């Protein structure tokens, strides 16, 4: 009996070691070249977004008519979909966009728009209530920016409080979904709140007049929102357009590490 138990332990130990050293499973991802235009194009002073092969969009209730199959065929490789805002707003188009983008083969994720007059914990619970843990989805995103035109909340809290609230939200969401969220932000919010002080944060950066390496002083980023006036076959009206910071191979590896 002792020898049998010892043998079983050795087999289990070998299995655990094999699991720990197993290579990362990289998905076979088809990247479609973008066939986009822009209603308000610019001449890029630095690196153009066209040098990046993986393009995608973010959208909300304002995009009510999306033919996802057509959009995907014209280069929408990923989509971030607005799910929630604050602690009581749920985007009415989220369910449709979430379901139909997936059916068309678009890799998608959900984002939360932060409301500075509610606690981070309450907002994280609201997001969890509405966004499913869907295998293969992109990691969640926390959208943090100033809200000077909000009808109910225009406060500007101090940078330390902003960063503390962001960490609370990220921690709660990571525990639930098993992936640490990214932070989406704008140049002024990033600078005003010294977000470079947040260690271990993966960023999605807005920069519509220059490459983010210039506007964010060399900050590392995974996604770059380069226009809000994109025109894409299959999508009625203008839409935000983004690129992933890397090659097709890097995209595959990133999805293997970061998808839910």
Portion of residues in helices?
Answer: 25-40%
Strand order of the largest sheet: 2-3-5-6-7-8-9-10
Strand proportion: 15-25%
Structural class: alpha/beta
| CATH topology category name | TIM Barrel
| Biggest pleated sheet | 8 strands, mixed, barrel
Question: Per CATH, which architecture?
Answer: Alpha-Beta Barrel
Radius of gyration: 20 Å
Domain count: the total is 1
N-to-C series of helices and strands: HEEHEEHEHEHEHEHEEH
Give the rounded overall mean pLDDT: 91
Low-confidence stretches: 1-21
CATH class: Alpha Beta
State the fourth-level CATH superfamily: Glycosidases
Beginning-to-end CA distance, first to last residue: 42 Å
Give a structural overview.
Helix content is 33%, strand content 20%. It starts with a helix and ends with a helix. The protein has a single domain (2-258), classed as Alpha-Beta Barrel (TIM Barrel). With 260 residues, the protein is α/β, with parallel strands linked by helices. It is globular and about 40 Å long. It has eight helices and ten strands.
């Amino acid at each position: 009996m002792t020898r049998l138990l010892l043998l079983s332990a050795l087999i289990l130990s070998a299995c655990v070691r094999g699991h720990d050293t197993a290579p990362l499973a990289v998905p076979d991802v088809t990247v479609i070249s973008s066939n986009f235009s822009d209603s308000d194009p610019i001449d890029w002073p630095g690196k153009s977004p066209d040098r990046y092969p993986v393009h995608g969009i973010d959208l909300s209730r304002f995009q009510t008519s999306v033919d996802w199959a057509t959009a995907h065929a014209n280069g929408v490789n990923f989509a971030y979909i607005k799910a929630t805002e604050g602690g009581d707003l749920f985007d009415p188009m989220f369910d449709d966009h979430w379901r139909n983008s997936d059916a068309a083969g678009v890799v998608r994720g959900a984002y939360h728009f932060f409301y500075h007059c509610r606690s981070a914990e309450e907002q994280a619970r609201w997001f969890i209530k509405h966004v499913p843990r869907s295998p293969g989805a992109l990691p969640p995103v926390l959208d943090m920016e100033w809200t000077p035109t909000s009808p109910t909340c225009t406060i500007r809290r101090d940078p330390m409080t902003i960063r503390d609230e962001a960490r609370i939200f990220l921690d709660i969401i990571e525990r639930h979904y098993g992936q640490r969220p990214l932070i989406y932000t704008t140049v002024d919010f990033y600078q005003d709140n010294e977000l470079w002080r947040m260690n271990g944060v993966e960023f999605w950066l807005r920069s519509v007049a220059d490459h983010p390496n210039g506007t964010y002083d060399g900050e590392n980023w995974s996604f770059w929102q380069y226009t809000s006036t994109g025109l894409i076959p299959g999508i009625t009206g203008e839409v935000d357009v983004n690129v992933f910071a890397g090659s097709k191979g890097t995209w595959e590896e990133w999805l293997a590490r970061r998808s839910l």
